Amino acid sequence: MAMVAERLFATFERIYVISLASRPDRRADMAGELARLGTGFSDPRVRLFDAIRPTEAGPFRSIGARGCFLSQLEVLREAQREGFRRILLFEDDVDFVPGIAKALPSVLDALDARGFGLFYGGYEFPDGDGHAWPGSGPLLPVSPDRAVRLAHFVGFDRSTIDLLVPYLELMIARASGSAAGGPMDVDGAYCWFRAAHPDLLTWLAQPQLGHQRPSRTDISPPGPLDRLPMPEILRRYIRAVRRFWRRRASTRSKE
């Protein structure tokens, strides 16, 4: 596993993990995921970033959405100040796919060979299409006009960071619903940025390297499971079962 970590850090100088201090459950799970890559929070190349939790939503759809936007923006600002060439950003609900240690090196080799501005290791599409293109890996280009959802596993190079920081700062300074792009969920902001910079080289990992772990959301209203009157320990058990079966299904799809 240590060899996988060293290969990862040869491409990305710094890994950022954004996590709310109030979510020790997610931090514990994330520590386990990083261990699968041969690294962890004790590695100086891994930065555990305490997520920003505003007191009000302001022009965003929720407090969590605003906090997510501000947290990712602050990570990008820090990376810019530190002068990192490339960074990889994880939200603390990322779950790596089975076989991540085997799949990752070929993706990194392709990124190094082809270059990139923006890289999605995990993603969704609003139309539900395009989750798998057999035989098209390890990277798939995505056009600037195609929306890509989620921002739990994203990589950036320095030139993109230098453009993205002022772009996001202008976004949050505008009124909500502005035709020029106002405050919105950060994954949507990245889509607007890509559309505004059509020459930006954006790649998707194919197949995906990480999905969102089943857990209580801090961005959207509580889901059906969290609205049910039941002990928290039961909710955790149900989510653990969901996680198990998703990983099992992912493993079978590769056989």
Brief synopsis:
The protein has 255 residues and is α/β, with parallel strands linked by helices.
Count of separate DSSP helical elements? 8
Classify the secondary structure makeup into a structural class. Answer: alpha/beta
* Percent of sequence in beta strands: 5-15%
Low-pLDDT parts are none
Q: What is the number of domains?
A: 1
Strand order of the largest sheet: 2-1-3-7-5-8-6
Span of the ends, CA to CA: 22 Å
- Using the coordinates above, name the CATH class: Alpha Beta
Mean pLDDT: 88
Largest sheet: 7 strands, mixed
Q: How helix-rich are the residues, as a percent range?
A: 40-55%
Protein traits:
255 residues; alpha/beta; Spore Coat Polysaccharide Biosynthesis Protein SpsA, Chain A; seven-stranded mixed β-sheet; two-stranded antiparallel ribbon; 8 helices; 15% strand; globular
Explain what this protein looks like in three dimensions.
The protein is an alpha/beta fold and 255 residues long. It has helices spanning 2-11, 24-35, 63-82, 100-114, 158-173, 186-196, 224-227, 232-253; strands spanning 14-19, 46-50, 86-91, 94-96, 118-120, 139-141, 153-157, 202-205, 210-212. Strands 2-1-3-7-5-8-6 form a 7-stranded mixed sheet, sandwiched between helices. The chain has a two-stranded antiparallel ribbon with strand order 4-9. α1 runs parallel beside α4 (100-114) and α3 (63-82) runs antiparallel to α5 (158-173). β1 (14-19), α2 (24-35) and β2 (46-50) form a beta-alpha-beta unit. The protein has one domain: Alpha-Beta Complex (Spore Coat Polysaccharide Biosynthesis Protein SpsA, Chain A), CATH 3.90.550. It starts with a helix and ends with a helix.
